[in-house]
Write a structure and sequence with these properties.
elongated, Heat Shock Protein 90, 17% strand, disordered C terminus, 284 residues, alpha+beta, Helix Hairpins, 5-stranded mixed β-sheet, 2 domains, single chain
Length: 284
């Protein structure tokens, strides 16, 4: 007893003090607890991903119907304006009609992008060299940004990286991602494109050192109706098209961004078709 209160110094039967026994029990269950917490975290991440995909799929169905309904009256407006333009002699009215036609065409292009997001055409896959495709896209954007303060660097394997994809659709997706990076930089900055093979995937990374995207806007960047210009970045339909194309190829599109430190967009495509013999791509 100490100060009139009982105090156990040693448990003779167990051979250990009660505090040490409790610590041993905690140590025994700790690995199992950590494993369960890790599983719970992974389950939450998968649930969030599936929920986001379901929301985008529902949005795609709405977009398909909206694009169809808007396209018909838009075609009538454009057609009537062109007919009036043929017989109009007043310079001011001709200019007004030309503006109507130009804006109608712009709206039609936006609806075409919306239809591509909503119901993209079925891919026509064939075995291509993704390394060559990434090199060509990098070369095109280097020429486009020549004379500006934007520099573009690419890191591509010297050996071919064969993958079975629709070359037109994948080009559209990669160009949209690169275009998004160029618009984010404005007048100056750096863009880095990298192609690599990792485990069972082909990974394409496009990174810029622009203003980045705040965390509140990041969950919305793949939505076709979201405009990131208020967040300092013009997203438009570019990333939504890219997300849809990558999805129908069985891949994933990821975005990582820290405000003030730039943005990284990662395309992950399955390795089906990679490392097949070269003769499969040519009759010779």
């Amino acid at each position: 007893e100490a100060e009139g209160k009982p105090r156990f110094l040693w448990d003779v039967e167990l051979g250990v003090c009660p505090g040490e026994q409790l610590i041993r029990q905690i140590v025994d269950v700790l690995p199992d607890l950590v494993g369960k917490l890790r599983d719970l975290s992974e389950l939450e991440a998968r649930f969030t991903e599936k929920l986001e995909r379901a929301a985008l799929d529902a949005l795609a169905e709405f977009s398909a119907g909206a694009a169809h309904e808007l396209n018909n009256p838009l075609a009538i407006i454009s057609g009537r304006a062109q007919l009036l333009l043929r017989s109009e002699t007043s310079p001011d009215r001709r200019m007004a009609l030309a503006t109507i036609i130009a804006q109608a065409r712009r709206a039609h292009e936006m609806l075409a992008d919306l239809r591509l997001f909503a119901r993209p055409p079925c891919p026509e896959p064939r075995i291509i060299d993704l390394a060559e495709l990434v090199k060509n896209i990098g070369h095109e954007f280097r020429k486009e940004t020549e004379g500006t303060g934007i520099s573009l660097q690419s890191k591509v394997p010297e050996t071919p990286v064969f993958c079975e994809v629709d070359p037109v659709q994948i080009r559209v997706a990669l160009e949209a991602i690169c275009r998004n990076a160029v618009e984010a930089l404005g007048e100056s900055g750096q863009i880095h494109i990298e192609l690599a093979c990792e485990q069972n995937e082909v990974v394409i990374r496009v990174q810029d050192n622009g203003p980045g995207i705040s965390s509140e806007y990041q969950p919305l960047v793949f939505h076709p109706f979201f405009s990131g210009r208020s967040a300092g970045r013009g997203l438009g339909f570019g990333l939504s098209k890219a997300w849809r194309i990558v999805q129908i190829h069985g891949g994933r599109l990821e975005l990582h961004s820290v405000p003030g430190s730039g943005t990284l967009v990662v395309v992950r495509l399955p390795c089906s078709g990679i490392s097949r013999p070269l003769q499969e791509t040519s009759p010779n």
